[in-house]
Amino acid sequence: MMIVSPGLFKHPSRSYSIVGVGLLGTFTYCHKYKINRVSFSSSIPSYYHCRATLSTMMEEVKPEFDSDKAAVLVNELRKTFNSGKTKSYEWRISQLESISKMIDEKEKEIVEALRKDLSKPELEAFLSEILMARSSCKLALKELKQWMMPQKVETSLATYPSSAEIVAEPLGVVLVISTWNFPFSLSLDPVIGAIAAGNAVVLKPSEIASATSSLLSRLVGEYMDKSAIIVVEGAVAETSALLEQKWDKIFFTGGARVGRIVMAAAAKNLTPVTLELGGKCPAVVDSNVNLQVTSRRIVAGKWVCNNGQACISVDYIITTKELAPKLIATLVSVVEEIFGKDLMESKERSRIINSFHFKRLVNLLEEDKVSNKIVFGGQREESQLQIAPTILLDVPEDSMIMQEEIFGPLLPIITVERLEDSFAMINRKPKPLAAYLFSDDEQIKRKFVQNICAGGMAINDTILQVTVPTLPFGGVGESGMGSYHGKFSFDAFSHKKAVLYRSFAGDSPTRYPPYTPGKKKQIKALLSGKLLNIMLALLGFYKD
């Protein structure tokens, strides 16, 4: 469903439509508004229906997908989970194969939806969205049997004779709330982990990326088991209704403000959460680097990566005063090489997602203490939702652009006398989701890894750490909690159950009262770890 805003209704003579899509054949979804005497309706067979009436009086009628409807949905999914259906290896594999098939067969539709939402270039859409989701799915298909196997562990003498194992069991019915900047891969990636772990899943995609949200709803309904995997579309009202329910896990990707809301809602039911948030990700550039390679990798991690609209994008650079002019010149050269001299005409960059975020970015640029710091770029066109790659030099640390996550094509460069001074600057800010260092100095590398706290790091590159499935991806502090990717996704949606096996043999009387002095000596000997004492205890030398 789309958000209704007064700005949509400037022409009373025209007709408009809103489409709400949800659980096939289960709910009727109605949302009614009154603004400017415009009326419209739209319906899709077997899906939610969305109807609205608009007049001069603003009046909102309670949507039918409310907390009660959400409760019905969760209860149905819980029945499916309790039946044991989702726990079997065969069901998990069949659903993962369906996702893989869906990605292969619908690649063109996925690319088109991403173009509508963000004007993503085809190659970027393939690499950052389709390939990432496909790789996650293939890895899960390949490794699932191994992931599901109980992990044998050693036992202690106190339980002899015995054996023990750790069993990964699904959590139950889980909620995945996704975001708009990578609306396909960041929706499917956690869902793949949840399915691999054997859970029933509700996916709530972002309404801001409406084309991809609608596509996911249709494709999941077409390819997946509708009794266990559901897409619920909508905006604040629908998300709020979902958050009022008791889940066995909530996985949220988005900003810290909404993350706090999600966590507060989860706390009411003691529901565990994974929060994939963001922050100001720094890149520190030493003077001993290959400037050409460094600049290309920074450009790739800033403007090529969804035009800076990525939680792991380079947010700002710290370098020495001496190196800054050379670094800026090389960055400009690389930007023009990749995007052309006329930056606003380039088709190789995604656009800003919507006018709200466009205006937010312009406000960052137009702040009094910042507007005169632009050394490259700065052009903008609101009708196209485009802002050129922009470099700023030595903006004040207390400016808005250095206080909040930029999430766009603006790149401040801050200079310091010594590179080590950058560590204190980074540590004054909340812990970022990612931190980057470009240096050939092994001592600087060690200090950076030891002294900078971040969700993840890359040395002499940007963003590629998220493509390594053996590395966890997640934040720390205000950049999030929990992690996923590869087996970490399976673990994120699993409970590690401790299981101890014993026979009826070896039932030592020392564990039972009365605890005589001789028994106490025997217990101390058994727990001492010294072989002679243990042998004496087992042979019964410690007696009253």
From TrEMBL:
Highest taxon listed in the record's lineage: Eukaryota
Active site (UniProt): E276, C311
InterPro entries, alphabetized: Ald_DH/histidinol_DH, Ald_DH_C, Ald_DH_N, Aldehyde_DH_dom, Aldehyde_DH_NAD(P)
Keywords annotated in UniProt: NAD, Oxidoreductase
A molecular-function term among this protein's GO annotations: aldehyde dehydrogenase (NAD+) activity
SUPFAM superfamilies noted in UniProt: ALDH-like
A GO cellular component entry from the record: cytoplasm
Segments forming domain Aldehyde dehydrogenase: 66-499
Gene Ontology BP term (one): response to water deprivation
Catalytic activity of the protein: an aldehyde + NAD(+) + H2O = a carboxylate + NADH + 2 H(+)
Protein family membership: Belongs to the aldehyde dehydrogenase family.
Name recorded for this polypeptide: Aldehyde dehydrogenase
Annotated source species: Gossypium raimondii (Peruvian cotton)
Biological classification of the source: Eukaryota, Viridiplantae, Streptophyta, Embryophyta, Tracheophyta
